[in-house]
Amino acid sequence: MKIAALVSGGVDSSVALCLLKDQGHDVTAFYLKIWLNDELSYLGDCPWQDDLYHVQAVCEKLQVPLIIVSLQQEYHDRIVSYTIEQVKQGKTPNPDMLCNQFIKFGLFFEKIDASYEKVATGHYAQLITIDNNYVLRQSPDSVKDQTYFLSRLTQQQLARCLFPIGHLHKSDVRALAHQFAMPNKERKDSQGICFLGKFKFRDFIKHHIGQRTGDLIEYETGKKIGTHEGFWFYTIGQRQGLRLAGGPWYVVAKNMSHNIVYVSRSYYAPEKNRTVLTVHDCHWLSGIVPSRQELRVKLRHGAPFNNALITYNSPTSCHLVLQENDQGIAAGQFVVFYHDNDCLGSGIIA
């Protein structure tokens, strides 16, 4: 097939590219540049230059043509602006979800011509076909599985997707990188949000929203026990970064209009029930609302599964009762639904 392979400079996408080339496909590598050269100068050296260096080294070794696609303005308009606005509202957005939905498998599809039958990435996810329907199945590597981030895709998008390493464990991919003598075989995995790379999300938010001193209030007593630099730096269930003695302390609520962050030391007390939530903007990968009322859910990537009883209010809204308390149920976070190992779709916590 003629395949467009999205590469990032990391080991995963590089091995995916190598496997496709080894299988005899007609492959062209594409690198998405989503930041202007000086866009992140306030945070330090921009990581995309290092990424591109590794991309070029891999493509040169494999003798695969490389095309750099600029999507800076589109990315800012669709992803960055949304992220900033959600944070200002006290919500907890997930830019990586939208990056896959609107950029990698959205605008990029429009940038390449129809002669490319598939778009390949280094995601840890599997695609199978059942009754002419594309089903997104988890990777056997439960730690690296990325179906959570792909849960907003449509059947039309999935039809053009290809995940060459989705059936492998990370250890297998790293071994293949050494076997193929890839130039970046020892490169560490990237962490953090797709558009920030090694930078801290807090620094990004500080640059765009700033700081404003507010009170840290103990939830049970109403007593002021400290100050913070803005409610937008905190999310429900957060424990790190509070800098309070006598803890551990957890964020339990926020008052956006008065810039107050409420904290508690008895976050896991039996009477603090965190099992009920409402989800809106539901998207089902099959295009059909599931018939099952009992599903497994994830409220964050990397979080353990939680069994949930679901009441469907409409095709795009539902009510969840979790079997176990969840550490943090925060407005704006994505809930992703699973049956067995198959990802069914996702919604946003209201």
Keywords:
single chain, 350 residues, alpha/beta, Rossmann fold, SH3 type barrels, Elongation Factor Tu (Ef-tu), domain 3, 3 domains, six-stranded antiparallel β-barrel, five-stranded parallel beta sheet, 17 strands, 24% helix, 28% strand
Explain how this protein is built:
This protein has 350 residues and is an alpha/beta fold. It folds into 3 domains: 2-179, Rossmann fold (3-Layer(aba) Sandwich), CATH 3.40.50; 211-264, SH3 type barrels, CATH 2.30.30.280; 276-349, Translation factors (Elongation Factor Tu (Ef-tu), domain 3, Beta Barrel). It is built from 7 helices and 17 strands. It has helices spanning 11-22, 48-62, 72-88, 95-111, 155-158, 170-179, 201-209, and strands at residues 2-6, 26-33, 66-70, 118-120, 125-130, 133-138, 161-162, 214-218, 224-228, 250-255, 260-264, 276-284, 294-298, 306-314, 317-322, 334-339, 342-349. The strands form 3 sheets. A 6-stranded antiparallel barrel has the order 12-15-14-13-16-17. Strands 3-2-1-4-7 form a 5-stranded parallel beta sheet, with helices on both faces. A 4-stranded mixed beta sheet has the order 9-8-11-10, with no helix packed on it. A hairpin with a 7-residue loop joins strand 13 (294-298) and strand 14. The mean pLDDT is 90.
